[in-house]
Amino acid sequence: MANGRPMQGPGGPRGRRGMQKPKNAGRTIARLLGYMGGQKHLLVLVFAGILCSSLAGVAGTYFLKPVINSIEAGLQSGSFDVRAFAMKLALMACVYAVGAAGAYLYSRLMLNISTETMRKIRVDTFERLQSLPIKYFDTHTHGETMSRFTNDTDTLREMLSQGIPQMFSSSVTIIGVFVLMCILSPILTALIVVMVFVITFVVKKIGVQSAKYFKSQQKAIGAVNGYIEEMIEGQKVVKVFCHEEKSKARFAKINEELFDAASNANTFASVLGPITNNFSYINYALTATIGAALAVGGVMDIGTVASFLQSTRSFFQPITQISQQFNSIINALAGAERIFELIDEAPEQDNGTVTLVYAKKNEDGTLEESDVRTGLWAWKEPREGGNAIYTEVRGDVRFEDVVFGYVENKTVLNGISLYAKPGQKIAFVGSTGAGKTTITNLINRFYDVPDGKITYDGININKIRKSDLRRSLGMVLQDTHLFTGTVAENIRYGKLDATDEEIVRAAKLANAHSFITHLPDGYDTVLTSDGVNLSQGQRQLLAIARAAVADPPVLILDEATSSIDTRTEALIEKGMDTLMEGRTVFVIAHRLSTVRNSKAIMVLENGEIIERGTHDDLLKQRGKYYQLYTGMFELE
Predict the structure, then answer these.
(1) DSSP per residue over 492-559, as a string?
(2) pLDDT digits (tens, 9 = 90+) for 202-213
């Protein structure tokens, strides 16, 4: 719990997780099939291609019997029919060619199917992400959410394009070869069955140990990645306090733990293949010996022995492939479940019916909806019969006995009542965790209040559609975020149809025009990595310009000048005064010099307003604000 807000959920660095099993594999598979439902005709061709490829391999193995027997018959009779032999070889080659064509067909089609399926899943995931409430992002780490788009989608894509086709192909091959072996020699087939049970027992024992150490390895990888990420981000702090040696010692320890876990995990995993292969070689030798004895005894011909020996190789190879694919498929299904959990998250609920519309004022003072931007906004409240009531957007915001907490049994705001008349500047000051930012979150309806009421121009904000409510609000946050694109595009984010002239005007208002014109390409300079090529102050200036171009009736400034030097702050205040003229403004500030000209200053402590008044009034009271302003008590 931080500042009364829930801590973010579990998950390693970048949301990395260890090997997990799906909770309901059947339901997950059914849902994946639903995403592939639109490509049923292609799936039919895929399975036809797999059957063709696998059965062609089985048939090709069987053709060894007549080919070798024809050679033996020719040698014994002294008369070798070259034409018949060539026909058999040609038929055998055709069978393998058909198998190769089937393999190419299903591989190519499955690639298309998996790509299209993943496209649909990514679209659904991203669209749901856009509709989730802020609470979701407050309770889940960014890395955990990103892992749904990266780690989980990658493992799922590999499963769809490679894992499932290979599992199906291997299964068909095993069944087909087993049937062929039963036809060729039930005696030798019994030997194969015994060997399969032995291999399964050994693999299961080793697999348990391997899975245990792989889980430890994934946990250790998360610890190492997290530590590296933490050290990179805090490199300045490490160097300032000369903690390089301690950091290296700590890294050496957790890296050693990763080495031990990885060494054990890969040791057990690495021996699985050789053990399976060696058992297959032992089986091959036993089969060859027994088959030769049966051939010498006249029980079996040479062609049958050769065909059966080839079948044993074709039988054990897909078993090895299935064992290798099984864990990756289980992990991919678990990843798919996590993706579907995100898709199934309840979207942000919005039962508001009041909308924000362009308006024009008639001669008699009544409002009328307009199809074009007029500079005048109105709230449109629908009424029965298709009628509507229009209320001019003025920016009158009121809190009435609001009680709120991010989690149950822990309130952040206790009975908050306040009002901001149109055009007034209201400031909130207080220690960290006092509830200042929470108030602005409630105005935006990032969270809904369980007790009390918030009204906007006399309308309960619960009745206003959230998107329309937020369009009427401009926000400048302490943590500025810039998007990849030009400077002009980042400013235009506040108003997508803003002209170049409006963008320049907004930049000048925020005092950003000067530094923008000194950038390499001016307003066309491309910003990347959250504007890493700009200073923090310059990024904040762009955020202010973005709010200015939106031209909202209500403005919320959450530590908007915290990263700007005093000189720049003074220049911005001149522009901000113009921006705030005629608007309702809520200001959260640690620098008390920025709130002196506020109409009212609210001093919060433990979620309650303990003092309110103008700057001069509060100084006369010689209370908490007086202590903060004179430096007798500093904000945390």
Answers:
(1) HTT-TT--HHHHHHHHHHTT-HHHHHTSTTGGGPEE-TTTTTS-HHHHHHHHHHHHHHH--SEEEEES
(2) 877 777 777 777
CA distance 330 to 336: 10
> pLDDT digits over 163-184, tens only?
888 888 888 888 888 888 888 8
How far separated are the first and last CA of the chain, in Å rounded? Answer: 17
Average pLDDT, the chain: 82
Classify burial at 507, counting beta carbons within 10 Å of its beta carbon; exposed 0-12, middle 13-18, buried 19 or more: buried
Question: Can you tell me whether residue 602 is helix, strand or coil?
Answer: strand
pLDDT at 459: 93
Tell me the C-alpha distance between 419 and 399, whole Å.
6
Question: What dihedral angle (degrees, nearest 10) is formed by the CA atoms of 68, 184, 169, 105?
Answer: 40
Q: State the residue for tokens 């892992």.
A: 147
Res 15 pLDDT > 50: no
Q: How far apart are CA 524 and CA 520, in angstroms?
A: 9
Cβ burial, residue 165 (10 Å; 0-12/13-18/19+): buried
Structure tokens, 437: 């930012």
Which residue in this structure is represented by tokens 């400048």? 476
Q: Exposed e or buried b for every residue in 344-371, given b needs 16+ CB within 10 A? A: eeeeeebebebbbbebeeeeeeebeeee
> How many CA atoms within 13 Å lie on the side-chain side of 506?
28
Q: Count the alpha carbons within 13 Å of 589 in the hemisphere toward its beta carbon.
A: 24
DSSP secondary structure code for residue 428 in this structure: E
R_g (Cα) of the chain, nearest Å:
36
pLDDT digits (tens, 9 = 90+) for 418-435: 888 888 888 888 877 788
Q: Calculate the CA dihedral of residues 330, 336, 341, 347 and round it to 10 degrees.
A: 180
Residue 524 tokens, joined = 């066309």
What CA–CA distance (Å, rounded) separates 22 from 339? 12
Q: pTM for the complete prediction?
A: 0.72
How many residues comprise the chain?
A: 636
Instruction: Tell me 5's DSSP state.
Output: B
Q: How far apart are CA 346 and CA 128, in angstroms?
A: 9
Reported as type and span, the H/E element at residue 466 is helix 466-471
Q: What's the rounded mean pLDDT across residues 457-474?
A: 90
The two tokens of residue 362 are: 């008639």
Six-digit token string for 448? 């809904």
**Amino acid (one-letter) located at 104:** Y
Phi, psi of 483 (to 5 degrees): -100, 160
What is the distance between the alpha carbons of residues 171 and 326, in angstroms, rounded to a whole number?
A: 12
Of 489, 566, 560, whose CA–CA distance to 526 is shortest?
Answer: 489
Instruction: Specify whether the CB–CB gap between 361 and 521 falls below 8 A.
Output: no
pLDDT tier, 401 (very low <50, low <70, confident <90, very high otherwise): very high
pLDDT in tens, 510-529: 888 989 999 999 999 998 87
